[in-house]
Structures are given as C-alpha cells and as structure tokens.
C-alpha cells in the first residue's frame, strides 16, 4: 500500500517536472514538448536513387512492434496536438509491421505521415493505411517523364507505379492527405511547372511539396556539394531562380504547391550560393522537434555527432532530463548554419 502510494507520488512528481522544467536559470529553451517527431525505422530500400545513399546500406528488415509501441506511448506524454509523427525511411512500406505501427500511433492522437517511393502502395496497402488512420502520404515523383524519373530513381517502371499508387490512394483512402514530393534538380528543372499543372488537375492529389537537393552521399553530411555525383544533379542558379519565381506565382494564383513563397525564395538563394546561406535566430527545431534514428538514437539536431541517448535502453523521461540533451539543445541555440531539415521539411520563415 505504502509502496503503491510512493510510486504514485513519484509518478506525479515526474509528470509535474516534465511540465515545468526549463533549461538553466535563463530558461532559454522551454520544457520538452513535441509537435514533430521524426522516427526513422529503416534505411532499407530497393530503389537506387542517384541522390540518396540509404539504399547502399542493408537497413533493418523487420521491427520489434512491442518496443516501438512502447516508444510511441512514451513520446505521447510530450505530444502537443496537432502533433506529427513522421515514420521515415528508407522505404518504410518494406516493413511488414508498418501498418500496425500507424494504427497504434494514430490511436494515440498523432497525425502520422509517411513518404514513399510508391512501389508497394497498391490497393490493399492503401486501404490498410487509410483504415489505420494515416494522416498524410507523400509519394516521391520528380517528373512525369519516365525517362527522367526512372533514371533518377534507378528503377525502371517507377513512374508508372507512382501513378498507380496515387490511383490506389484516391480510391481506397480518399480521406488521406495525398501529396507529391518533388526534388528540384538539373534533370527535372523544366518539368516542374508542367508537373504542378498536372497535379492541380489530378482528381486525387492534394498538393506538391518541393525539396532542394542536399548531399547525403556519404556518412559525413558536411561533404555537401563537393561530391562529383552531387554536382551533376545541381540545377543552374539563374534558371532555377526563374523557375522558382514561376512556382511562387502559381502558388499565389491558387495552385496546390505546399511550400510557402518564402520557402521557394529561400530555395532560390540556396541554389545561388549553397554555402553562403545562413540563418539568423536559434535553430527552429530546438523548440518542439526530435529525431530518433533506426537504431533508437535520440537527437534534437539530426546532424549532431552526439546523441542524447538510446531510447530502447533508457526511459525517454530520463534521456530528456540528461545533460547530453541539454547540451545539444544549447548548441542548437547557437547554430547559424543551414541544413536539409530546416530548408526542406521543417522550414520556418525567419
Ligand atoms: C529519403 S526518402 C524516403 C522515402 C521514400 N523512400 C521516398 O523516396 O519517397 C524521403 C524524401 O527525401 C528525398 N531525398 C532523398 N535524397 C535526397 C537528397 N539528397 N536531397 C534532398 N532530398 C532527398 C526523396 O526524394 C524523398 O522525397
Ligand atoms: S530516396 Fe527513397 S526511394 Fe530513393 S534510395 Fe533513398 S530511400 Fe530509396
Ligand atoms: S544543423 Fe543547425 S539548423 Fe540544422 S537542425 Fe542542426 S542545429 Fe538546426
């Protein structure tokens, strides 16, 4: 009886500490709360995209569902609705447990998002994901021309499968937000405006989200554009700025481009001089985002060499209260660089 009430008291104190804790006396970084969690599940993929290194690794082939359910439960204590849980890969649809994980996280109140190359998104998978309450499915498509998309993706038939996937989602899970994810590259630069016009007229698509190329062709993300393979994909600055201005005008005219004009303008600056681009304020990810990779390593900055800890070895509450977590968040306050995350998926206007 006494043991039970002590445990109850400890639990209440722990919850209270989570709610009121601030970092340091100045309280410059607030208590932990997550509105976006990027949960990497596997790097495994059977495409051979020219701009991606993930397929070169073996990656995890199956998930321990109980461990992941437990992790999602712990993360849910810090969730600030409407909170996004991005289940990331690799190709997450290669994981047999993926739909079950989507079901669990949706039930917990997360808006679950996945990005896929579309190959395995057939009717049955679309129905299953829809039934599980997935909030957003993004399908990567860089051009409607198979000679361009299939070549960039190293997979003959990739374009056709994307078109089939969009059809399957529209028919089997029409309530799910369905977008294209499109990279801006030398090879597809002049395909972007026609792609947007096509998407605007598509019966099932809700939008197109553009991304800039970031070098991840190696384990060291700082290699950036020094790599020959990357240089061959970079679009020419002047023409790119013109295309991006055209996309911003389409957006303002009501097109379903999901990037805000400010982000498209930042993309133009980035392609003009990738190394010069600097941010002013503290990293926007420090506030309410965390990243957990496929090995369970927790970071707040996805590019930090240090980890805050391993979520399958230590309770999340303990990791979040650790010095390692505090140090990483403090470093993020000082970072004025730019990176894939703040440019692309987690862009915030400064
Ligand atoms: C890493 S993939 C994982 C999901 C899935 N396999 C796919 O390709 O859609 C997620 C998104 O990142 C994009 N991507 C891959 N490598 C990139 C790079 N070097 N720079 C920018 N975006 C990249 C892909 O085109 C895709 O839209
Ligand atoms: S971008 Fe996606 S489809 Fe292409 S290799 Fe990387 S993980 Fe696979
Ligand atoms: S590299 Fe800098 S801007 Fe990017 S996530 Fe890390 S701290 Fe933020």
Question: What do you see in this structure?
Answer:
With 350 residues, the chain is an alpha/beta fold. The chain has one domain: Alpha-Beta Barrel (TIM Barrel), CATH 3.20.20. The chain has a nine-stranded mixed β-sheet with strand order 6-5-4-3-2-1-7-8-9. α2 runs parallel beside α3. The radius of gyration is 21 Å and the shape is globular. It starts with a helix and ends in a 7-residue tail after the last helix. The structure holds S-adenosylmethionine and iron/sulfur cluster (2 copies). The site of S-adenosylmethionine has 16 residues, from β3 and β5.
Secondary-structure topology with pairs:
Elements: H1 2-20, E1 34-40, H2 65-76, E2 79-88, H3 98-107, E3 111-116, H4 123-131, E4 136-140, H5 146-153, H6 158-172, E5 177-184, H7 192-201, E6 207-212, H8 228-231, H9 237-252, H10 261-272, H11 285-288, E7 289-292, E8 297-299, E9 309-310, H12 316-320, H13 323-334, H14 340-343
Parallel strand pairs: 1-2, 1-7, 2-3, 3-4, 4-5, 5-6
Antiparallel strand pairs: 7-8, 8-9
Helix pairs in contact: 2-3, 4-6, 9-10
Bound molecules: S-adenosylmethionine and iron/sulfur cluster (SF4) (2 copies).
S-adenosylmethionine binds at residues 45, 51-52, 54, 89, 91, 115-117, 140, 181, 183, 211, 213-214, 216.
């Amino acid at each position: 009886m006494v043991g039970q009430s002590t445990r109850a008291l400890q639990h209440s104190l722990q919850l209270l500490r989570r709610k009121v804790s601030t970092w340091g006396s100045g309280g410059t970084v607030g208590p932990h709360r997550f509105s976006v969690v990027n949960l990497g599940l596997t790097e495994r993929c059977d495409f051979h995209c020219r701009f991606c290194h993930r397929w070169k690794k073996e990656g995890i082939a199956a998930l321990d569902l109980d461990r992941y359910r437990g992790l999602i439960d712990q993360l849910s204590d810090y969730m600030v609705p409407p909170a996004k849980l991005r289940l990331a890969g690799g190709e997450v649809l290669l994981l047999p447990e993926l739909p079950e994980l989507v079901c669990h996280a949706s039930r917990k109140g997360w808006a679950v998002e996945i990005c896929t190359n579309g190959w395995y998104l057939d009717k049955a998978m679309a129905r299953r994901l829809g039934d599980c309450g997935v909030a957003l499915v993004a399908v990567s498509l860089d051009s409607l021309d198979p000679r361009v998309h299939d070549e960039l993706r190293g997979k003959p038939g990739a374009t056709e499968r994307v078109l089939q996937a969009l059809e399957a989602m529209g028919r089997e899970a029409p309530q799910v937000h369905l977008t294209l994810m499109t990279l801006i590259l030398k090879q597809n630069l002049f395909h972007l405006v026609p792609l947007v016009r096509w998407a605007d007229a598509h019966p099932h698509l809700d939008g197109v989200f553009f991304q800039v190329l970031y070098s991840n062709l190696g384990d060291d993300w700082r290699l950036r554009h020094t790599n020959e393979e990357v240089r061959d994909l970079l679009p020419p600055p002047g023409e790119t700025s013109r295309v991006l201005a055209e996309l911003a005008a389409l957006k303002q005219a009501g097109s379903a481009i999901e990037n805000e004009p400010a982000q498209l303008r930042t993309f133009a600056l980035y392609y003009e001089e990738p190394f010069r681009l600097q941010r002013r304020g503290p990293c926007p990810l420090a506030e309410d985002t965390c990243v957990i990779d496929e090995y369970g390593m927790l970071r707040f900055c996805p590019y930090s060499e240090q980890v805050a800890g391993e979520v399958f070895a230590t309770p999340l509450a303990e990791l979040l209260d650790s010095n390692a977590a505090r140090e990483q968040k403090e470093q993020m306050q000082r970072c004025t660089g730019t990176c894939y995350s703040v440019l692309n998926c987690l862009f915030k206007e400064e």
